[in-house]
Amino acid sequence: MIGFLGGTGPEGRGLALRLGLAGEKVFIGSRDAVRAAEVALKLKAIGHLSDVRGGLNEEAASIADVIFVVVPFPAQRPLLESLKGQLEGKVVVDTVVPVTYSGGRFDMAVVDEGSAALQAQVLLPGSRIVAAFQTISAHNLLDIATSVEGDVVTCGDDDEAKTLVMGLAEHIPSLRAIDGGGLENSRYVDGITALLLNINRYYKARATIKVAGI
User: Fold this and answer.
1) What pLDDT does residue 146 have?
2) Distance (Å, rounded) from C-alpha 50 to C-alpha 180?
3) CA-CA distance, 148 to 130, in Å (whole number)?
4) How far, in Å, CA of 140 to CA of 193, rounded?
């Protein structure tokens, strides 16, 4: 089962929907169990899915095999600190991008550890952290009438965990997984995402990235 921490937001809903359509069992986690259950019902209706549930973040962390972190960056530290025990030994996929928005533009937030995923590894030393999906638009994921195109650059120090997450990415039609090397490289993917956000704002688009020559 795949669990989503903070899964009621756009990125969580979109990834849960697409992975549910690919046949994965999904659990939507939230601080609000009622809200999570409502989102699960909506996703089931949109995608005609049979195995989508919702509840508290604590439940998602406990019962799921693979955990996606899909909260805004300021919420990541307190959330992961509170769930450290439940996440021990599990594959944790960090999709979080530490950006700020001011004066009509997106900028990278200062992260002492270097990236959101590197922070997650410090907070969860017993978990298998993989950074992925930062450049994939939540709006595109939620629009099931269109295919989600792009490359999912996947970074991690645990090769088995990284391969597992790359396989999940390629369960979504039109997405391709790219091995981005070690978790240290996640900082560069975060920066690309901030650039994409500014490009998309300027062009009023939902552009993503594709790596040519592979």
Assistant:
1) 87
2) 33
3) 21
4) 15
Per the structure, the complete domain to which residue 114 belongs is given by 2-203
pTM > 0.85: yes or no = yes
Write out the two tokens for 7.
């899964």
Q: Is 212 among the domain residues? A: no
C-alpha dist (Å) from residue 8 to 3, 35, 98, 115: 12, 7, 19, 23
Q: What is the pLDDT of residues 1-17, one digit of tens each?
A: 999 999 999 999 999 99
CA 95 to chain centre: 3
Instruction: Kindly tell me if the per-residue pLDDT of 83 is higher than 90.
Output: yes
Q: Which strands, in side-by-side order, build the sheet including 91-94?
A: 52-56, 26-30, 2-5, 66-69, 91-94, 128-131, 150-156, 175-179
CATH number for 142? 3.40.50.720
Six token digits for residue 152? 């999912």
For the chain, the domain total comes to 1
Calpha distance 66→148 (Å, rounded): 22
Instruction: Specify if 23 maps to a domain.
Output: yes
